[in-house]
């Protein structure tokens, strides 16, 4: 109960902030973008990980608020980095949208306003949604995703390979990016089944003109296998975990 009222206050007090996990070009190591991951900077408990507050936020109906706070801060941070590091090229930052959030009535207006006020280039703010979230109501999701693209966001399908979306839907939805679920990546060096799934997702991405990002790249051996399979981008503890903004900027600078 105490945690509940504290979490409610955390939003108004600005205690929720994004950390940034680098997404790198696997061939060069250069940072291509970041995934923003929420952290709660609690005045007494210190940094609280999402595992400890996401389900509570869900129960309390605060996920819309979380998405908004994360998009605002991530967009503002990215705009600063783009201004300071012109050599970084078309950097992007992705934010996770939770189950049900793509159906939130004001989402498209909010995203439009955030992109306008931060002046981010088209596609720089990327929204990650999961297959299962899309498949709740595919027709409705398709409309909303198209609107999000129209207002300048790009779209990633998260945890790809774990859900049940049919390829015919995937081909019709306006995604820019497929993210290979980390389970397949983590096991691709030991399990031929995982290796085949990774390869087929990379090929699917190529056929549909989608960028493919491998999650869970925990070591150089996995990065090597991914490059051999034609996967261009990855993220994982082999590069960096989610970092506070200042450290993420140092990582960016040193990768270029
Ligand atoms: O960063 P960490 O490894 O602790 O994240 C744990 C889980 O929390 C991940 O599954 C991640 O997708 C989720 N998560 C982190 N930040 C956010 C966020 O801002 N919004 C949503 N919906 N999920 C998040
Ligand atoms: O797909 P999702 O949004 O859940 O991905 C973010 C989650 O993945 C976060 O919980 C993050 O901490 C975790 N993560 C990032 N890189 C790695 C990695 O290399 N290995 C493992 N096991 N988890 C990772
Ligand atoms: Mn994600
Ligand atoms: Na994932």
Can you tell me the number of structural domains? 1
Full CATH superfamily name: EAL domain
- The Cα radius of gyration reads 18 Å
The main sheet comes to: 8 strands, mixed, barrel
- Tell me, what's the shape? globular
Which hetero ligands occur in this complex? Answer: guanosine-5'-monophosphate, manganese (II) ion, sodium ion
Based on secondary structure, the structural category is alpha/beta
Mean pLDDT: 94
Distance between the termini: 47 Å
Strand arrangement across the biggest beta sheet: 1-2-4-5-6-7-8-9
Order of helices and strands: HEEEHHEHEHHEHEHHEHEH
Number of strands: 9
Domain EAL: 1-256
Protein name: Bifunctional diguanylate cyclase/phosphodiesterase
Organism: Brevundimonas terrae
């Amino acid at each position: 109960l105490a945690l509940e009222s504290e979490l409610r206050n955390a939003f108004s007090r600005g205690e929720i902030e994004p950390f940034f996990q680098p997404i790198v070009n696997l061939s060069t190591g250069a940072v291509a973008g970041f995934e923003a991951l929420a952290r709660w900077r609690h005045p007494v408990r210190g940094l609280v990980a999402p595992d400890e507050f996401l389900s509570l936020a869900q129960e309390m109906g605060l996920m819309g608020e979380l998405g908004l706070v994360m998009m605002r801060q991530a967009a503002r941070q990215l705009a600063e980095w783009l201004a300071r590091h012109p050599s970084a090229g078309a950097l992007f930052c992705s934010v996770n949208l939770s189950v049900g959030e793509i159906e939130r009535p004001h989402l498209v207006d909010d995203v439009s306003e955030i992109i306008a006020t931060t002046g981010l280039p088209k596609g720089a703010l990327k929204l990650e949604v999961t297959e299962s979230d899309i498949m709740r109501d595919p027709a409705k999701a398709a409309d909303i995703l198209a609107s999000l693209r129209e207002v300048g966001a790009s779209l990633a399908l998260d945890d790809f390979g774990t859900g049940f979306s049919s390829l015919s839907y995937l081909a019709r939805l306006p995604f820019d990016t497929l993210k290979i679920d980390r389970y397949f990546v983590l096991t691709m060096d030991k399990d031929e089944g995982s290796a085949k799934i990774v390869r087929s997702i990379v090929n699917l991405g190529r056929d549909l003109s989608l960028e493919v990002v491998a999650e869970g790249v925990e070591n150089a051996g996995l990065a090597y296998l991914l490059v051999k399979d034609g996967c261009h981008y990855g993220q994982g503890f082999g590069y960096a975990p989610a970092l506070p903004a200042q450290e993420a900027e140092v990582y960016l600078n040193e990768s270029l």
